[in-house]
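User
Take a look at the entry that follows and flag anything odd:
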Amino acid sequence: MSENKDPHVAQSGTSVESVKFVYDFTEGNKDLKDLLGGKGANLAEMTNLGLPVPPGFTITTEACKVYLDSGEEPAALRDEVSAHLEALERRMGKKLGQADDPLLVSVRSGAKFSMPGMMDTVLNIGLSDKSVQGLAKQAGDDRFAWDSYRRLIQMFGKTVLGVDGELFEDALDAAKAAKKVTVDTELEAADLKKLVTKFKKLVKAECGRDFPQDPREQMDLAIKAVFDSWNGDRAKLYRRQERIPHDLGTAVNVCSMVFGNLGPDSGTGVAFTRDPASGHQGVYGDYLQNAQGEDVVAGIRNTVPLAELEQIDKKSYDQLMQIMETLENHYKDLCDIEFTIERGRLWMLQTRVGKRTAGAAFRIATQLVDQGLIDEAEALTRVNGAQLAQLMFPRFDESAKVEQVGRGIAASPGAAVGKAVFDSYTAVKWSRSGEKVILIRRETNPDDLDGMIAAEGILTSRGGKTSHAAVVARGMGKTCVCGAEELEVDTKRRRMTVPGGHVVEEGDLISIDGSSGKVYLGEVPVVPSPVVEYFEGRMHPGADDADELVEAVHRMMAFADRKRRLRVRANADNAEDALRARRFGAQGIGLCRTEHMFLGDRRELVERLILADTEAEREESLKALLPLQKKDFVELFEAMDGLPVTIRLLDPPLHEFLPDITELSVRVALAESRQEPHENELRLLQAVHRLHEQNPMLGLRGVRLGLVIPGLFTMQVRAIAEAAAERRNAKGDPRAEIMIPLVGTVQELEIVREEADKVVAEVEEATGTSLKLAIGTMIELPRAALTAGQIAEAAEFFSFGTNDLTQTVWGFSRDDVEASFFTAYLEKGIFGVSPFETIDKDGVGSLVKLAAKAGRETRPDLKLGVCGEHGGDPESVHFFHEVGLDYVSCSPFRIPVARLEAGRAAVTSAGSDHR
């Protein structure tokens, strides 16, 4: 295919009608996920590999986009679908829904990115009152035919016609109760035939129309329903959670049906080529005899482990193992596979690169390198900073006294503690009130997504590692225990009964361990993660399971450090944090906030300095502060010896160092009413009134404070210079950098720099030491970014303060807006993510890019860094790499994440350049 002539790409000036909207499975491949969605592209790939895939075709995401934009399907779509359906009918030797020997199809969604259970699927399309008789005759099994028909009406009614799904579930439960059975497989053909009649009456009563008997109408309505499900509430919520773009649309896969509900020699299952929870190689997955695919992921019947398939159907098992090896070697990754066995014949229904836990991601990446399937650069693309952050969370203390009440399947690791809740609404409500909750269900379904997001962890009494709860939890990095069968969950009475008869009521504390599957009463204490212990230097790679994970993390970090260009520094204000940061791999301090050094006992000295009426008072305060500041810097330089330490001069709003005006007013009023002496308080109140600001964040702070209060900045510069000289004379290697905050114009920087240079020269002369202290500034105001070329004339480095830059670009006060309307903005899709969490590339990012370019045009050797919270955000780190910054700086615990993402950024940008 030539670069600009793909038939599926609408070129400029090309009409929609000329675009190809439907592809047979034989026409696509795995690289067409944008067009065919992940499911369609991978069905095509498996077809190309010669694997047993039921014939079918895919309607493209382009068709979905046209439908969503216009409200109508493309004019050419119906004819294309008809042509492909006719070709499918010829290949299968039967027609869709014909009375005597019907062709049945499934209609399934399939977006570019996996969205498990978030969009719609309808199976058994083509069944009707007439064709169900033909299917029964063809299969020689009345029960199978009527079971398939009731499934169609149930799925179609809920998905396409909007009938409340619980109405069908209640009718099915009533049928089982009448028969005195517990599972649907124990219902006989006559029972299912009655259930079909009841289901059809439900549809008529709820929709005002009969269940459609025309098979083509069924298929067309199902296709539209899948298109519509792209904009369903749960799909939009999932995309926001996973940061999937909203404009991609979904493909629709129409596939000839194969049946796992034809008896004990049939079944359906989900398999993984490696354990998605641990990454270990082996036989992992679930199998369910006499069932259709949705039964497995819905968790409505408990499955058996995939390994048991070897005893049930060894021929199919051996074939499946061979196919799994083929797919893993082909995709070079963990594969998630859906399959059906129809009377002893294996069919492949789907494969995709499987979601995995954070620990599994690191283990699998290193395993694949060792197997020679991928190289180090590719391995880095298989893990990410968010996963590494998960691995640094604490785990339960196994030595603590605990009361274990159950054990399920370890579906997604982590240590979660919270109050028991039994429905999604309560989970969200309590979470918003600040409560930590554990969502407990028999099984989850896509409608539970809100509650799953809000909860600390998820616990279900049914389902396995491939159930909806497990798959979605792993994707979100949420702790999950599934299939804890010994726990009796009663969602209507909001309680769970555990072995021995103890009842867990809603609101009771429980703890769940997603790594072991154990469930405990009460709150279990936690201990540090082995990964944190590794970064702290207290654990080294070894042989047991915890150390195996540490070994994988160690190797991936080594890969990242070899590949990355960005250096990683720490935001640290004292020697303790600096030493921890160094252990975590920091290559210096990118931000030392000196205002943090003035809290506690020193606050009074700063208060006296700010309120001083005379030069003598001011000098006295400065003289008292100087040795304290110098001691701080000596300790920092010792901790970070040989590495750069960027020290920001005093920056905070003035009110942080002044008494609270309301509290002070009350004190003065009380003293007056009691006729007590209050001259000092009154004088202080008058000064506070004089200095009071309506908006302190935009008032007398940063460089403005240094210019207005004589001697403040020069005292700090002297303390830095004297500490550096003392350390150098002690044979150390201090590398201090002085950063001037909140500069908006080069003149501010020039004045402060002139004074600073003079002080440094005095210290050099007095100590006989050459210091070479770099002086630079923070770029945290739009004007500073827009005039960066001028400011660079007086600055040796820029550090982007993206917290304040985001506030001033957006006009947001972070402390106020995050609590007031950010939730609404996220829900309405105005934000995909908070601009304080991930940098706003279009707005704030444009200023960073502009300032970096202008600064280096003035001063080619200008050092560029970032010290806002974005410095530790994975997505933002990639942006800073692309812009050409020299380093990012973040809090000590985010340093490993930044190191990993800096390596990934180097690899992905190199790959983009190569492509």
